[in-house]
Task: inverse folding
């Protein structure tokens, strides 16, 4: 079901780009160019501001992390973007977990009793591998994993390390998607080899992640 939903979202995304009203792409490129100019003039300040914004978004579970990841791919490239997004996302996830553990424990227990029991069973059965599997192929939403893991006994440093490794493949794929999207000049570029590769990677991400989890479980 999740694979079908993901494929549907990709198709809708392609159709939206193809049927953008005249001038929409130019307007988006205009704002991107302004951001790029500021980045070139103040690279360190821009990178720091982006890191702080991404950290707040993930810590407070504000929608928009995916769009920020695409933006990072278009502005910072694959290497710098990976460093910024991976660290910000992992730090935000860890802070959200600690907030749940020390400030929201009672509320989380009452509000998410059913999924909490599933998390407890998974952690008892498979330990940190279960957390890795959730990060690689999330059964629960990103924010919910952070909240529920705060109620477990998982070590903070191990939580940080496992989350970082588990989220890294998806981060790299979405950064590459942002980089390809930033190179669009006309709507016909949607059929370029780079864009086609981007859509293939986006489509394969959940399939490959599920396959990796199955292989690791067997081993």
Result:
């Amino acid at each position: 079901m999740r694979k079908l939903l993901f494929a549907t979202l990709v198709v809708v995304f392609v159709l939206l780009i193809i049927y953008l009203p005249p001038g929409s792409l130019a307007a988006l490129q205009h704002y991107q160019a302004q951001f790029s100019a500021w980045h070139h003039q103040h690279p360190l300040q821009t990178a720091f501001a982006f890191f702080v914004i991404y950290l707040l978004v993930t810590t407070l579970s504000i929608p928009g992390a995916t769009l920020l990841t695409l933006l990072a791919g278009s502005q910072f490239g694959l290497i710098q973007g990976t460093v910024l997004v991976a660290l910000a996302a992992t730090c935000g996830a860890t802070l959200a977990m600690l907030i749940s553990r020390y400030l929201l424990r009672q509320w989380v227990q009452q509000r998410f009793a059913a999924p909490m029991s599933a998390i407890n069973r998974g952690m008892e059965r498979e330990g940190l591998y279960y957390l890795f599997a959730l990060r690689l192929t999330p059964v629960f939403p990103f924010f919910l994993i952070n909240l529920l893991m705060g109620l477990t006994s998982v070590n903070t440093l191990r939580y940080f390390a496992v989350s970082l490794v588990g989220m890294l493949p998806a981060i790299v794929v979405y950064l590459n998607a942002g980089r390809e999207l930033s190179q669009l000049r006309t709507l016909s570029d949607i059929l370029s080899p780079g864009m086609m590769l981007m859509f293939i990677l986006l489509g394969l991400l959940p399939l490959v992640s599920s396959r990796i989890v199955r292989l690791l479980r067997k081993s």
